[in-house]
Amino acid sequence: MRICDRWIQEGTTDRRGRSHPPKYTTSREDRQIVRMAVTDRSVTSRTVAQHIDTVTHHSVFARTIRRRLQQSGLSARRSLLGLPYP
Question: Which residues does the UniProt record annotate as the domain Transposase Tc1-like (predicted)?
């Protein structure tokens, strides 16, 4: 459909199709996820997902939590299991 035809029929020139799905978490949930990760560095993404589910009744996958933390500039940390051999 051409832009002129779309304007006449729909009254807008915006494209309908998007290449990505809508964001699953709200900006408020994103801030809460980041706040939890910053205050307690040992918290896991599954724990954060369970907390978000209990507080907002909105289930979120652990992968979504990791993606939001990565988007905000936080990276995953591995706990120190032991000192390496010299």
Answer: 30-79
Q: Number of helices (H) and strands (E), helices first, in the chain?
A: 4, 0
**Mean pLDDT for the stretch of residues 69-73:** 92
| pLDDT confidence of residue 86 | 61
pLDDT at residue 77 in the model: 66
Beta strands of the chain (E only): which ranges? none
Residues in the chain: 86
In this prediction, residue 17 carries a pLDDT of 64
Cβ pair 59, 51 in contact under 8 A: no
Q: Show the CA angle centred on residue 44, arms to residues 43 and 49, nearest 5°.
A: 105
Task: Output the pTM of the full model.
Answer: 0.65
Task: Provide CB contacts within 8 A for 59, sequence distance 6+.
Answer: 49, 53
